[in-house]
Amino acid sequence: MRGDRAKVYLLAGQPVESPRLPAGLHVVATPIGNLRDVTLRALEVLAAADLIACEDTRVTRKLLDHYGITTPLTPYHEHNAAAARPKLLARLAAGESIALASDAGTPLISDPGFKLVRAARDAGHAVTALPGPSAALAALTVAGLPTDRFFFEGFLPVKGGARRARIAELIRIPATLVLFESGPRLARALADLATVLGPRDAAVCRELTKLHEEVRRGDLPALARAYEDGAETRGEIVIVVAPPAEGSDQPEAGEVDALLRRALQRVSMKDAVSEVATLTGQPRREIYQRALALGNETDDGAAK
Ligand code: SAM
């Protein structure tokens, strides 16, 4: 029976009893690698909740086993969320406490949970934050780049053309950029960032808090070269990119190309050239030459 379960967790092998948990949805951040990064409050809530909704029950089970927590788990991920959400809301309505966790880091940050939080709030249930690890903030703190203003982009599109178009939208943002990436896609993402944003300072933050943690600094072209070899980079990665240089009102390297690529998907070459010339103030003849060169490229940016 649910009520009979011991609501304890183990710290240094000693059982610690959790205080009673109020009803509602508790959004719990969990470690991004090192299991010791969990907070005491997270352990209390994970141990005391009636149910834990999490992305992959096997991943969250490892954390629970490490701390001797026996709370039941139920999957809540992008493929079952629409069906699972009404059931979770019904349990909240019945006065239960539910912890929401993701595989790693803070739920809702490039992870499921936004619609559940919104629905829980709309239904008048308490929603409580248990802050803790998040890969984006961890990377910002070690990248050595300005932190006064930052823009969290999350994952870039997988396809080359869409990825470069999205990066072009980031060119003018006067803030440090924070992007999520996976090992296999790192080289292509860095190459496109270098092409569109030019030689800005950046950092590749890999496997933070884990055994093979690594932070590599350099400008984007140098980082793109360092990772281009085809030898797939392993692990989880955050790319941090410095803001544009102050007072740079000329289009940056690649901006014209990126704008052209987007325009060419919508309109004729003549109209695209005219549109981009107006946007950037560059001579029409030069834009036309770039448009011709782009017409000879494959989707991944290589010459045909
Ligand atoms: N919600 C999570 C958070 O707050 O950290 C992020 C989830 S997102 C699906 C996963 C991405 O986060 C990875 O692809 C990687 O970009 C980044 N990430 C997660 N753990 C990391 C780590 N230990 N080191 C570097 N990046 C990490």
Provide a descriptive summary of the structure in words.
With 304 residues, the chain is α/β, with parallel strands linked by helices. The chain folds into 3 domains: 8-133, 3-Layer(aba) Sandwich (Cobalt-precorrin-4 Transmethylase, domain 1); 136-241, 2-Layer Sandwich (Methyltransferase, Cobalt-precorrin-4 Transmethylase, Domain 2), CATH 3.30.950.10; 253-303. Helix content is 38%, strand content 20%. The protein has helices spanning 40-48, 57-66, 81-93, 114-122, 135-143, 160-170, 186-197, 220-226, 255-266, 269-280, 284-295; strands at residues 8-11, 14-17, 24-28, 51-54, 73-75, 97-101, 127-130, 150-155, 176-182, 201-206, 214-219, 236-241. Strand 10 (201-206) and strand 11 form a beta hairpin. Helix 3 (81-93) runs parallel beside helix 4 (114-122), helix 6 crosses helix 7 (186-197) and helix 9 packs across helix 11 (284-295). It is elongated. The model has no long low-confidence stretch (mean pLDDT 91). The structure holds S-adenosylmethionine (SAM). The site of S-adenosylmethionine has 23 residues, from strand 9, strand 10 and strand 12.
